[in-house]
Amino acid sequence: MTKSSIVVVGSSNTDMVVKTERFPVPGETVLGGDFFMNPGGKGANQAVAAARLGGNVVFICKVGDDLFGSQSLELFRREGINTTHILSDGNIPSGVALITVDAFAENSIVVAPGANAALNPGDIRKKSEVITNAAFVLIQLEIPMDTVSYVIRTASENGVKVVLNPAPAGVLPEDLYRHVSILTPNEKEASMLSGVTVKNLETAKEAAGIIHNKGVHVVIVTMGSKGALVSSDGRFVHVPAPVVKAVDTTAAGDVFNGALVVALSEGKELVAAVEFACKASAVSVTKKGAQLSAPVRDEIKDLNLSLSKI
After folding, report:
1. Do the Cβ atoms of 43 and 257 come closer than 8 Å?
2. How many angstroms separate the Cα of 172 from the Cα of each of 48, 61, 91, 143?
3. Cβ neighbours of residue 171 under 8 Å, at least 6 residues apart?
C-alpha cells in the first residue's frame, strides 16, 4: 500500500427504494410508484464514489454471509475497490435501508444495520496496519461509536489524516474532535454539533467556529444546493453548487466526501478539493440511486463554479 491510499471504514447496506408523490404522515399509507433495489450504506457509497473518481481505495466493513453480502462484495470488486479487509459474519444479516423518495427528490431513510452494528474495535485492531499506512481515512457514523473512536484515534496517533463525515447526525465524544483533521457535517449535523441552528452562510460560519474550538482543524459545512462553506485557519470560503435538475439526493453527501478525499489524496489544496467535491455531488443528484449515482471523472470536468470569500 502506498501513502496515496484512501481507507474507508463504514457501513454497507442494500437500499430498497420506493418513489412516491409525498411522504406519509404517521399512521397513513400512501400508494407509491417505482420500486428498485440498489447497493448502499454510507461507507460503501463513499468508497464507490472515491473509486469511480480514480481513488486508490481500501474498504473495511462487515457484511452478513448472505445474498446481499455476496452481491456487495462482487460490486466492490467490479468498482476496483480493495476488498481484502472486508469481514463476513455468518450469524448476522447484512444491513438494509428502506428509502422513500418524494416528488421533490427529497428522501426519508430507515436503516436496519445488521452486520454493520457488529463491526467492533477488535475487528479494526486486526486491520490496524492498513489504517496506519494510509494517506487518508474516511469514516462516518453508521457503525458503532466505539469503533469510530478506535479508528480515528489509531489513524490520528500515526499521523494519518482523518476525514469524519458525522452522519447520521449524533453526539460525538468531546475528546474525539482533536483527532479529526477534517469534519464534514451538513446543516443539520453542524447544528447538532455546535448548538447553532444553521440556516444560511452566517450561521454556518458561527457553527464552524464553535466546532473549531472543540479541536477540529478544518470544518466543511455542506449545504445542499447552496454548496459548501469551507472554514480553515480563520478563513471562510463559500463554494457554490452547480445548478442542476435534482432527481434523487440520496447519496449526494456521500459522493461529496468520496470526491473530497480523492482530490486531497491527489495533492489538491483544500478549496480546490471542495470545488471538485461540489461538482461530483451535483452530478450525483441528477441520477437515481446511491452508489449508482456516483459519477466518473469525465462527468464533472465541464461544470463551472465561482468561489467567494465571506
Report:
1. no
2. 26, 21, 29, 13
3. 192, 193
pLDDT in tens, 151-205: 999 999 999 999 999 999 888 999 999 999 999 999 999 999 999 999 999 999 9
Alpha carbons 122 and 126: distance in angstroms, whole number:
7
Question: Is residue 99 assigned to a domain?
Answer: no
In the chain, how many domains are there? 1
The residues annotated as belonging to the active site are 254
Q: Is 34 within the bounds of a domain?
A: no
Candidates 9, 19, 91; CA nearest to 289 is 19
Asked which of 5-9, 15-19, 159-163, 277-281 is least confident by mean pLDDT, the reply is 15-19
Residues of the chain by 3-state class (helix, strand, coil), percent to 5? 35, 20, 40
CB atoms within 10 A of CB 210: 14
Kindly list the strands in the beta sheet with 6-9, ordered across the sheet, starting from the edge strand earlier in the chain.
57-60, 6-9, 136-139, 161-164, 182-183, 218-222, 228-232, 235-239, 308-309
**22 and 30 Cβ atoms separated by less than 8 Å:** yes
Give, as one character, the DSSP assignment of residue 247: S
CA–CA gap between residue 291 and residue 300 (Å, rounded)? 16
- Full-model pTM: 0.89
Confirm whether 152 is domain-assigned: yes
* Alpha helix (H) residue ranges in 16-63: 42-52
**Tally of CA atoms within 13 A in the half-sphere of 297 that contains its CB:** 6
Note the pLDDT tens digit of each residue in 247-294. Answer: 877 789 999 999 999 999 999 999 999 999 999 999 998 887 778 788
Q: Which amino acid is at 178?
A: R
Domain containing 211 equals 6-11+41-92+116-309
| Domain-located, residue 109 | no
Which CATH number fits the domain that encloses residue 183?
3.40.1190.20
